[in-house]
Each structure stands twice: as C-alpha cells, then as structure tokens.
Design brief:
Blueprint: H1 21-37, H2 64-75, H3 87-90, H4 138-147, H5 157-164, H6 168-178, H7 186-197, H8 206-211, H9 220-232, E1 255-257, H10 265-274, H11 283-286, E2 294-296, H12 318-329, H13 336-347, H14 373-383
Antiparallel strand pairs: 1-2
Length: 384
C-alpha cells in the first residue's frame, strides 16, 4: 500500500501496571472517583465514541440500489473462478464477518496462507485494508480477493465482467445503478461491493453505552481492564473509535512492528511456538527492509468474536493473545487477574450486528454459465 507509515515505539513511557487484586480494586475505585469529580466524563472518552457516519468517498456515493446490487455480488459465488466461493464464504456476515479459521479455503480447496482473514464488520472505518495495508480503500480491497489465485481465483477483472455480462438481471441492475454504455466494469463491481460493506457496522457495544453515560454497562472487571489497558500503554496503538489508530487519515494507514520485543524472554517463547516472524509483513508490499514485520494495527471492535488471532491466525484464545501482546509489544508479563480484566474490557467492545437477510441472485434461465470451470481450473493450475 503506497501509504505513509506512522510508527510508534510502544516500549517507551509506560506506567507500571497494577499487579494485585487489591490494586485492581483501588484502580476501579479511583476511576469511579474520577468520574464523579469530572461530572461523568469517563476515561472511555479517551478512546472515542462510535462514529455517527461511515466515511464515503465522493466518487462512490451510497444509494439503496447500489447497496442492493453490492449485496448480491457479495453473496454471489459466480464471481469466483470455480463458481463456489463468494465474499461471504470467508467474511461470513451471518456470523462475525470472518470464518474463524486460522487460514481460509479458497477455490478448488486451496489454502490461503500465510494470513488470517480479518472481519468485514467495521472495515469501512479502516484507514487502509489488508494486514499489510496494500489497499487504500474498500473499493481497492474488494478487487483483491476476486483476482487472487488462491481465494476467488478469477484471472483478471475482464473475466469477471465477461461472466456477469452473461447474467440478464445483472445487465439490467448495473445499467440502473451506474448508467452509461457499458455499466458492467470491474471498477463498478468493486464500487457496489464496497457500498454494501459500508452498511456492515456494529455500534452500541457495552463500551459505547458506558461512554454515553450508562455507568452500569461495564462491570468492575471491565472498568479496571479499561484503566489497565491505558496505563500499560495499549492505547498508544489501539486508539480512536475503532481502537486501531490515533487519528490517521483515511488512505494512509497506521502500522506497527510485531513482535516489537522479540528478544524478551517470554516473547521469544511465543515466537518459537507461533512463528510470527515467518511472514515479513509490509515488506512484501514495499520491499523496504525497514518495513519487515510491520502490519496494519487491527481494530479491536468485536475482537472477542474473531478468534484465532494475529496476522497468521496462530493464537486460539483472547486471553493468550493478551499475554502475547503484553510480552511482545510492551515487554511486560501480566498475571492472570490482569489478563482477566483486560479481556473483560475487550469483551465490552462487542457491538450490535445488523440483521442480514440473503439476497435473491439474478438467474440465467435455460442455461448454465459455468460449463468451462474444469478448463479454467486446469489453465489456472498451469499458470501457477
């Protein structure tokens, strides 16, 4: 992603974490006192409220018809080479926007290594897309999986257009939404899918309710975890409304090295077990040695539901992910009580998911358009 790197050494200027259950109780009491003293202004406001609107590019305005078309395309496996994989296959919107696999399966059973599938929910707020930030917009991201030889496998955008042009209903809908002489273009396919994805947001989490003034929305453990999250310095990178950047403009990205402290004794054990550094990260995009092991900082909204964790999907549970982050990014070891509180806070970031219904896909009366799939698979395998 030809974007600006914004990097922060999160090992500096850390405040010591509370280490005992008594200190956790004192922290919760202090927070409560601070709330009273500040007239209800909470530590939570430091992270930010869920945005009232999603960012929308001027050249791709949202319309109901475009959302409906994008939803059809999102669920349509015919835009994959095999005719079996849709966007929803890996980014399941009936669940949490992922498939909860370490590595997803693509066309013809191919395994999508080395990266884990991020959630599509709230992706509209990402300043860049993909772990390595190679796409600077949802529109650019939507094209990637479709033409990825492992994921959806289409050889190029022209092949996608050719297939869609064979479907009468799509010819009509693209004309209605985009107009023009040749409305079915790969750019318009991506624009429609991105427009639908901008509807996939999850506001009104317990944390959001707390920010708005309902102090009962978080229990004592989550409140203590929120304080610990900040005192440890987690918010250096996991900042802002999505807990993914401290205010980076759309299209530029916010990246951090992972692991930051690979020589920390505890982190070294995790590295040996999980092999985080087998993947060079953003270096694959920029080919700049300084970008080795840098990744887009992921948002933490709904993180309780999107296991397994990290760029390689190697860590199964959220408590273990918290331990890894403490050791590898902060150079700290957390005790079980601290981990429990941080996890309680992260659990509070689970929002309300929109109700999704399956669209009816346009048909091809009296014929199939997928008869050449075996030939295409052989051609694709030969190209590899």
């Amino acid at each position: 992603m030809n974007k600006m790197d914004t990097r922060t050494d999160s090992s500096k200027n850390r405040k010591p974490a509370a280490a005992t259950r008594d200190s956790r109780k004192r922290l919760a009491l202090c927070l409560s006192a601070a709330l009273a003293a500040l007239g209800g202004v909470s530590l939570a406001h430091a992270f930010g409220e869920f945005p009232a609107k999603v960012p929308v590019p001027a050249n791709n305005p949202i319309t109901p018809a475009k959302v409906a078309l994008g939803k059809q395309l999102y669920f349509d496996p015919r835009i994959s080479l095999s005719g079996t994989e849709s966007c929803d296959t890996c980014h399941n919107v009936a669940s949490n926007g992922t498939d909860n696999l370490g590595h997803s399966f693509g066309v013809f059973g191919r395994v999508d290594v080395p990266r884990n599938t991020p959630t599509v929910f709230n992706a509209a707020f990402n300043t860049v897309q993909f772990w390595d930030g190679r796409a600077n917009s949802l529109e650019a991201q939507a094209k990637g999986p479709i033409t990825n030889p492992v994921e959806m496998g289409m050889p190029n955008g022209e092949a996608v257009v050719k297939r869609l042009q064979q479907i009468p209903g799509y010819r009509k809908e693209f004309a209605q939404v985009f107009g023009g002489k040749d409305p079915i273009t790969f750019d318009n396919v991506a624009a429609a899918i991105a427009t639908y994805e901008r509807t996939l947001i999850t506001p009104d989490s317990p944390y959001d309710q707390y920010v708005k003034g309902d102090k009962k929305a978080l229990d004592a453990s989550a409140t203590a975890g929120m304080g610990l999250f900040k005192s440890l310095g987690c918010d250096t990178c996991h900042a802002g409304p999505m807990f993914d950047n401290p205010g980076t403009p759309m299209g530029t990205g916010f990246f951090q090295k992972f692991p930051l402290h690979p020589t920390n004794a505890e982190c070294a054990k995790y590295e040996q077990k999980y092999q985080f550094m087998k993947d060079p990260g953003r270096f694959d995009v920029t080919h700049n040695p300084a970008d080795k092991y840098f990744y887009k900082v992921p948002g933490l909204r709904n993180v309780a539901l999107t296991a397994p964790y990290f760029h390689n999907g190697s860590v199964q549970t959220l408590p273990q992910a918290v331990r890894v982050m403490a050791a590898c990014q902060l150079g700290k070891n957390l005790n079980d009580a601290q981990v429990k509180d941080v996890v309680a806070f992260l659990d509070s970031l689970t929002g309300k998911f929109p109700k999704e219904t399956l669209p009816h896909l346009p048909q091809t009366p009296n014929t199939s358009i997928l008869m050449d799939v075996p030939h295409l698979e052989k051609a694709a395998a030969h190209k590899k």
